[in-house]
C-alpha cells in the first residue's frame, strides 16, 4: 500500500512538473527537464502497471527498463545546460549522454538483463542477469557525473544558482543512491521496488521546492498560488469532514429534527463561505513570507523614488540616494548607476561599493544591448540571443542590467546595475516592472542633471581660461618689453663688438697656418690650431645667439640656396680635424659616392653640423672614435655623428634640446658651454622640414643627427662627391 502511494504521488507530481515546464519552456534547459520528468513519470507508470497486471509483468518490466534508459541521459543533458559549459565541452557531454542512452536501451532489450519477473503482494521481484548490474552501473555513473559537475562548478555559480543547486544535487544524489541500491544490492528483493519510487519521490520533492522557492523555471508564482488554494480548500474540507462525521451523529443522538438539521447545515455552509476569504488571505500571507521574503510595496518605492528625483539636481547626490532606496527595498547585493562619458567627464560608476568591470566587458555591453531591443536583462533568465551578455553579467556578479534610454534601439546614457539578491531569491516580474518604470523616469532626471553639470563645468572652465589668458597676456607683455630692450642691446653688441674682430682673428690665424706669412714651426702649429678652433667656436656661438634673438623677435627664417651637403660636411670636418687631433680622437667621415644638390640654408646647416661634431669632440675622452655619416635614399637624406663618449643620462635626455640646458656630466667635462647649440640645431632642422636623430647611453656614447625629406628640400640635380 505504501509503495503504491509513493508510485502514484511521484508519478502525478513529476508528470505535472514536466507538463508545467513544457508549457512554460524558454530554453533547452527547461526542455530537457520536461523530457526528464516525462521519462520518470513514464517509468513509474509502467512499473506501477506491472505490479497490478501480473500476467504482463515481464513485458512491462522490460518496457520500463527501456523508458528508464532515457532518465540518466536527460539528467546529464539538464546538468550540462544548467551549468553553462563552453560550446566544445557541451558538445562532448551531449555525445556522452546520447551514448549512455543508447547503451542503456541496448542492455534493456538483451536477454541477459532480466531472467524472470515475479509479482508478490503488489511488489515486483526481479531475477536479474549479469547485464542488469552493468546497466545499473552505467545509470548510476551518468547521474554521479552530473553530481560531480554540479560540485565542481558550484563555487562559480551565482547566489540564485547556488540556492537551487543545493536541492538539485541532493535530489540527484538520492536518485543515484536509490538506483544503485535497487539495482546492485536489493535487485532480487521486493525492497528494490520500494527504494526506486521512494528515491524518485524525494527527488521530486526537492526539485519542486527548488522550482517554487528559487524560480528554477519561472513557475514559483503558479506553485505558490496553488499552495494557497490547496491549503485553503484543504482546511475547508477538513472542517466539513469534522462537522459531517462528528456533529451529524450528535444531532441524531440529540433527536434534532430534520428541518433543524437542514438549517444547521445551511448556517454551517454560510460560515464556511465566510471563512474562505480570511483563510485564503491567511495562507497567502504564510506562503508569501515563506517564498517572498523580499516582498515590498512597489507603489511606496516609486513614490520615494520620485521624491528623490524632484528634490535634487545634483547627479552624485541623486544617484547615491537612489542606490540606497533600491538596496533597502529590493535588497540586491549592490546597486550602481553607470554613466557613459561626456564631453567634459570620463565614464563613471556611482555605486554603494567599489566595482571593477573590465573595459572589454563594458564595450561589449554597450555594443550588443541596443541590438537586443530590450531595456532590462536578467542574468539567469535572458533569451538565447544574449548568451554572451549573460556570461559577462555573471562574471561581474550583475543580476540585473537596466538600460537608461528612451529608445530601446539607441545606446542610451548608461545603465542601472544590480547584484544578485541577498536572500538568493530571483528577481520577480514585479521587480523587473518597477525597475523599468524607474529607468524611464531616471533617463529624464539624469539628462537634466547632466545638462546642469555641463553648465557648471562650462562656467568653471570658462573662468579658468579667462584667468589663464589674462595671466598669459600679462607675462607676454612683460616679455615683449624685456625682449625688445635685450634685442637692441644684444644685436648692437654682437654685430659691432664681437663678430667683426673675431672674424678678423679667425682669418689671420687661418692665413698664418696656411703659410701665407712664411713657414711656421711645428711646436707653434698646435697652439695656432687651438686658437683657430676657439675663434671658430666663438663665431658659431655669436651666430647662435643672433639666431636666438631672431627667434624671439620673429625674424628667424630659413633662406635656402642650392647646396651640396656632401661638400658642406667635408668643409666643416676639415676645419674640425685639428681640434679632433688635439683631443687625440679619430674623426672619420663616410660619405656617398654621389649626392644630390638640395635647396638648403647652407649657413645654418653648417652651424648644425659644426655643433654636432664639436660636441662629439669635447665630450669624447682621448683615444675615442667619432664617425660622421651622410647617406640618402629615394625619399630622404640622413646625417649622423656617432661617438663613444660620455653619453647622456637616461632621465635627463628629455631636457637635452631645451634652451640653455646642459646635463650634469657635460657641465663637469666642459664648464664653458652655453646650452644653446642643440636648441638652435633642433630649431634649424625643424624649420627646414626635417627631424632630429638622437640616441644615447650613459658611458657608452651618443648619436646625433638629422633627416631631411628630399621633397621638402626641393631636389634639383645630382653631383659627385668622395668618401674619406
In short:
The protein has 724 residues and is an alpha+beta fold. The chain is elongated and about 165 Å long.
3D structure, described in words:
- This protein has 724 residues and is an alpha+beta fold.
- Helices cover 64% and strands 12% of the residues.
- The chain is built from 21 helices and 15 strands.
- The strands form four sheets. It has a five-stranded antiparallel beta sheet, with helices on one face. Strands 9-11-12-14-13 form a five-stranded mixed beta sheet.
- Strand 1 and strand 2 form a beta hairpin.
- Helix 3 packs antiparallel against helix 5 and helix 4 runs parallel beside helix 6.
Chain-wise SSE layout:
Layout: H1 2-23, H2 28-52, H3 57-68, H4 70-83, H5 87-109, E1 114-120, E2 123-128, H6 130-153, H7 159-185, H8 191-214, H9 220-253, H10 258-291, H11 298-311, H12 315-329, E3 335-339, E4 348-351, H13 359-368, E5 376-378, H14 387-395, E6 400-404, E7 414-418, H15 429-513, H16 522-553, E8 561-563, H17 565-582, E9 586-590, E10 594-600, H18 602-618, E11 625-632, E12 636-643, H19 664-669, H20 677-687, E13 690-697, E14 701-709, H21 710-713, E15 717-720
Parallel strand pairs: 9-11
Antiparallel strand pairs: 1-2, 3-4, 3-7, 5-6, 6-7, 8-10, 10-15, 11-12, 12-14, 13-14
Amino acid at each position: 500500500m505504501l509503495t503504491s502511494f509513493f508510485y502514484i504521488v511521484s508519478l502525478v507530481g513529476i508528470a505535472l512538473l514536466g507538463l508545467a515546464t513544457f508549457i512554460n519552456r524558454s530554453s533547452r534547459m527547461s526542455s530537457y527537464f520536461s523530457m526528464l520528468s516525462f521519462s520518470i513519470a513514464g517509468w513509474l507508470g509502467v512499473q506501477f502497471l506491472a505490479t497490478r497486471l501480473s500476467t504482463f509483468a515481464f513485458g512491462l518490466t522490460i518496457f520500463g527498463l527501456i523508458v528508464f534508459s532515457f532518465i540518466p541521459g536527460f539528467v546529464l543533458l539538464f546538468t550540462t545546460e544548467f551549468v553553462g559549459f563552453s560550446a566544445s565541452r557541451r558538445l562532448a557531454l551531449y555525445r556522452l549522454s546520447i551514448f549512455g542512452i543508447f547503451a542503456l536501451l541496448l542492455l534493456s532489450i538483451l536477454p541477459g538483463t532480466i531472467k524472470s519477473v515475479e509479482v508478490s503482494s503488489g511488489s515486483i521481484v526481479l531475477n536479474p542477469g549479469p547485464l542488469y548490474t552493468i546497466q545499473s552501473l552505467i545509470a548510476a555513473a551518468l547521474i554521479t557525473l552530473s553530481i560531480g559537475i554540479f560540485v565542481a562548478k558550484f563555487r562559480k555559480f551565482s547566489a540564485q544558482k547556488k540556492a537551487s543547486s543545493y536541492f538539485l544535487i541532493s535530489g540527484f544524489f538520492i536518485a543515484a543512491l536509490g538506483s544503485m541500491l535497487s539495482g546492485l544490492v536489493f535487485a532480487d528483493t521486493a525492497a528494490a521496488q520500494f527504494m526506486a519510487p521512494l528515491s524518485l519521490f524525494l527527488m521530486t520533492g526537492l526539485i519542486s521546492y527548488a522550482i517554487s522557492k528559487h524560480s528554477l523555471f519561472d513557475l514559483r508564482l503558479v506553485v505558490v498560488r496553488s499552495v494557497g488554494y490547496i491549503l485553503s480548500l484543504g482546511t475547508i474540507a477538513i472542517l466539513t469532514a469534522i462537522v459531517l462525521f462528528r456533529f451529524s451523529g450528535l444531532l441524531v443522538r440529540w433527536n434534532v429534527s430534520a428541518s433543524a438539521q437542514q438549517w444547521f447545515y445551511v448556517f454551517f455552509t454560510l460560515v464556511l463561505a465566510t471563512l474562505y476569504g480570511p483563510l485564503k488571505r491567511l495562507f497567502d500571507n504564510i506562503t508569501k513570507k515563506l517564498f517572498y521574503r523580499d516582498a515590498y510595496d512597489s507603489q511606496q518605492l516609486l513614490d520615494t523614488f520620485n521624491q528623490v528625483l524632484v528634490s535634487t539636481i545634483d547627479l552624485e547626490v541623486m544617484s547615491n540616494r537612489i542606490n540606497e532606496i533600491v538596496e533597502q527595498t529590493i535588497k540586491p547585493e549592490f546597486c550602481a548607476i553607470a554613466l557613459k562619458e561626456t564631453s567634459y567627464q570620463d565614464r563613471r560608476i556611482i555605486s554603494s561599493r567599489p566595482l571593477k568591470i573590465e573595459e572589454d566587458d563594458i564595450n561589449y555591453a554597450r555594443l550588443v544591448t541596443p541590438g537586443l531591443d530590450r531595456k532590462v536583462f536578467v542574468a539567469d533568465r535572458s533569451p538565447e540571443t544574449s548568451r554572451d551578455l549573460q556570461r559577462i553579467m555573471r562574471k561581474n556578479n550583475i543580476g540585473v542590467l537596466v538600460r537608461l534610454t528612451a529608445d530601446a534601439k539607441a545606446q542610451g546614457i548608461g545603465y542601472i546595475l544590480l547584484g544578485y539578491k541577498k536572500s538568493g531569491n530571483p528577481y520577480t516580474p514585479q521587480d523587473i516592472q518597477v525597475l523599468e518604470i524607474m529607468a524611464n523616469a531616471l533617463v529624464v532626471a539624469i539628462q537634466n542633471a547632466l545638462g546642469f553639470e555641463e553648465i557648471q563645468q562650462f562656467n568653471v572652465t570658462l573662468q579658468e581660461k579667462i584667468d589663464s589668458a589674462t595671466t598669459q597676456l600679462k607675462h607676454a607683455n612683460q616679455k615683449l618689453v624685456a625682449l625688445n630692450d635685450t634685442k637692441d642691446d644684444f644685436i648692437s653688441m654682437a654685430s659691432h663688438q664681437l663678430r667683426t674682430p673675431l672674424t678678423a682673428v679667425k682669418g689671420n690665424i687661418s692665413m698664418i697656418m696656411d703659410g701665407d706669412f712664411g713657414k711656421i714651426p711645428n711646436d707653434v702649429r698646435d697652439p695656432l690650431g687651438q686658437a683657430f678652433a676657439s675663434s671658430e667656436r666663438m663665431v658659431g656661438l655669436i651666430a647662435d645667439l643672433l639666431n636666438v634673438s631672431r627667434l624671439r623677435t620673429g625674424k628667424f627664417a630659413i633662406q635656402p640656396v642650392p647646396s651640396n651637403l656632401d661638400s658642406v660636411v667635408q668643409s666643416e670636418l676639415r676645419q674640425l680635424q685639428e681640434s679632433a687631433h688635439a683631443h687625440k680622437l679619430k674623426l672619420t667621415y663616410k660619405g656617398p659616392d654621389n649626392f644630390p644638390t638640395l635647396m638648403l640654408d647652407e649657413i645654418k646647416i653648417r652651424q648644425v653640423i659644426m655643433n654636432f661634431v664639436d660636441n662629439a669632440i669635447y665630450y669624447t675622452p682621448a683615444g675615442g672614435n667619432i664617425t660622421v655619416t651622410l647617406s640618402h635614399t629615394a625619399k630622404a637624406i640622413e646625417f649622423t655623428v656617432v661617438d663613444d663618449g660620455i653619453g647622456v643620462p637616461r632621465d635627463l635626455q628629455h631636457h637635452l634640446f631645451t634652451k640653455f640646458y646642459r646635463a650634469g656630466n657635460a657641465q663637469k667635462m666642459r664648464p664653458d658651454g652655453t646650452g644653446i647649440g642643440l636648441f638652435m640645431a633642433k630649431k634649424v632642422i625643424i624649420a627646414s622640414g626635417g627631424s632630429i636623430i638622437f640616441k644615447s647611453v650613459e658611458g657608452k656614447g651618443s648619436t646625433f643627427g638629422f633627416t631631411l625629406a628630399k621633397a621638402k628640400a626641393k631636389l634639383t640635380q645630382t653631383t659627385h662627391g668622395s668618401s674619406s
